[in-house]
Amino acid sequence: MFGVVGHSLVIVLITSTPLRHFPSVGIPICDLPVRHRHYIDSLKFHSLQLPDPNKNCREKETEKKMILTGIEDEDKWLAEGIASIQHNAFYMHRALEANSLRDALKCSALMLSELRTSKLSPHKYYDLYMRAFDELRKLEMFFKDESKHGVSIVDLYELVQHAGNILPRLYLLCTVGSVYIKSKEAPAKDVLKDLVEMCHSVQHPIRGLFLRSYLAQVSRDKLLDLGSEYEGAEDTVMDAVEFVLQNFTEMNKLWVRMQHQGPVRVKEKLEKERSELCDLVGKNLHVLSQIEGVNLEIYRDTVLPSVLEQAVNCKDELAQYYLLDCIIQVFPDEYHLQTLETLLGACPQLQPTVDVKTVLSRLMARLSNYAASSADALPEFLQVEAFAKLSSAIGKVIETQVDMPIVGAVALYVSLLSFTLHVHPERLDYVDQVLGACVKKLSGKPKVEDIRAKKQIVALLSAPLEKYNDIVTALTLSNYPHVMDCLDDETNKVMAMIIIQSAMKNKTCISTADKVEVLFELIKGLIKDLDETAKDELDEEDFKEEQNSVARLIHMLYNDDPEEMLKIFRAVRKHIMAGGSQRLPFTVPPLVFSALRLVRKLQGQDGNVVGEEPATPKKIFQLLNETIEALSSISSPELALRLYLQCAEAANDCDLESVAYEFFTWAFILYEEEVADSKAQVTALHLIIGALQRMHVFGVENRDTLTHKATGHSAKLLKKPDQCRAVYACSHLFWVDQDGIKDGERVLLCLKRALRIANAAQQIASATRGCSGPVTLFVEILNKYLYFFEKGNPQITSAAIQGLIELITNEMQSDSTTPDPVSDAFLASTIRYIQFQKQKGGVMGEKFGPIKV
């Protein structure tokens, strides 16, 4: 007990125990607490004076100024410290060379006194420490050789304790202690115990941490381990464990106390400095993990509880996060698996601000890698019920940390799902359970707006797709759609695109109507119009890409069973018909062609078909008619007309005349009522003529009606050249070799009518521009004449062809005709063809013979 009376320091020693001797050595050591013993030792060398009452205030002011001064002053203090160490080290080296123990101890103590500074940040202090550490290595080599200094290691151990300052004394004591243990003149456990207790004397956080780090460094190869040369008869691995744990505990306390060493205004700077020293504390745990004798039993019963106790009780955010992360990183995975409950039990007890999600994520990542590294490890996961424990722990952490942001909670579920997919990929119920827990957390809250949280949810939903490479598996997860419902519209569309891309990448075939229902519910963000306010914000290129992806997906829906395929068609139709005017032009065509593929498969199967809801071509055509009709009502008549013609050709292949006629009727109605643009009319009319030419199912009456309609509309086109081309195209409707339709008179009638229109076009050009237009139309008509002449149309004679050639020649020679290289080349090519046919000989040569060119 210490007391101050007047100006004298009175020391009263109260002890009921006698002095004890260091085991087997004979060095008297007082049974008083260590801090008292060192204080008494220091009295041997220093005069007793009262402390200056203003000294602490001045030191605090100095420290404050030091914190605010900046890097330049620290660099100056560091340079001065290094210079002092080098100066004293120089004289220490001379003393070592002269084998002068006294001078060596004196110089080394002066050198180590530089480590007493409080002016340096941890980073700078580390530089200073390493300089001294290197010199201590040389001093240790000197201590080992007793022949040089002539003092026994026992006496040397006592001698260094007479150093004037406590910090140099303990550095020297640790250095000599290392040699002392190697000499085996005392049990290693007793020396280590004495050293770790004496280090209590230094309570300054930075100085204490580096001192204990030095102790851990010099003792790590002298710990009592299995097969260690320092292992005695009564020594066990537990002695080494207790030593390291004791050192770790004290270092952690010093480290935590650092946060209170400066003013509040520099708290951020202090926390950064503390984070720089975390490895000093963690080094102890690394040493423990390297002790071979630390088996699962010792780790479970002693090491882990002690470390977790320190982590929880320190109530420091930085320390708790680092210590748990350090435990996870340094100890074997199988230990974590067998002590999972204990480790996870500490997580809810941590401070609310601790980044538990990162700690647990790293734990689950390590366990996942452990499971992947060995198939033999999987039974262990089942035995310890790893998934249930992790799931329960995550739930408790989220429940305990009420202020945890959504992104943190979802990140935990992402890690748990990743763990589940790696360790238990076959357990879809586990996967669905994780998704369900996430839904529970997100339910009752507005749509997620935080960008990071949305990315985590997308990662959560993408994980099963990446693992199973099969969208069908994801469709069986009941909670999958519920998680998507928590996303805002934009992110929902992003996730829908990921789902479609996964299906296309893996060429997944969705083959049942139920799965199609679930799938289209998942991608509803792409197939339904957003609200009116969001419509205007759509990016055109992105929108087209999205809708084209949906179109490609529709082509991947297939089932060999016609009835099931019809159900799929109806399910898709129900969803896409709600898409609105912007989406239908993209989504209806693939649906129509998918249905037509089914129609051709059922070709000829109409009438008595077995089944509850038999799939027949007529029934499908009825649905197609209703579907295409929706396009015509949203200002897409040209597309609807094309689809009607496609359906008409499919009906023709199925020999359904009435159905084909109905589709042509709708095509003409669209042409007459909806197609107003002149260019679009020309294109539509040529499509109708081409499709009608390929029809073989029509009877005479229906065919005449449709061809009459086509030729009538051809003559009513706005521009004369368009009229001419459409009319001569109609000539093909009256001469179809495959169907035996050969009406030569009507072919000739169409061609003559085309000539009159071409002549009228020339006259109009002459009247408006003062010169005739090119003769291209006449050359085109000449080629039609040659075509039907070769086909054997008796109404097309060589005389008619000759007259047409002369007409074209005269027109080209006329002064009023505009020269046109394209027309000239076209005519020259046609003339060469006629010459080729004449020179060919045979029947065709005789036929072309009368024509003179």
From TrEMBL:
Superkingdom of origin organism: Eukaryota
Where does the record say this protein resides? Membrane
Known InterPro entries for this protein?
ARM-type_fold, Vps35, Vps35_C
State the protein's purpose: Plays a role in vesicular protein sorting.
Q: What's this protein's family per the entry?
A: Belongs to the VPS35 family.
Question: Which key words tag this protein in UniProt?
Answer: Membrane, Protein transport, Signal, Transport
PANTHER family, alphabetized: VACUOLAR PROTEIN SORTING-ASSOCIATED PROTEIN 35B, VACUOLAR SORTING PROTEIN 35
Task: Tell me the membrane topology, using the record's own terms.
Answer: Peripheral membrane protein
State the signal peptide span.
Answer: 1-21
Q: What is the designated name of this protein?
A: Vacuolar protein sorting-associated protein 35
Asked whether the UniProt record includes Signal among its keywords, one would answer yes
- In its UniProt entry, the species of origin is given as Salix suchowensis
Predominant location category: membrane
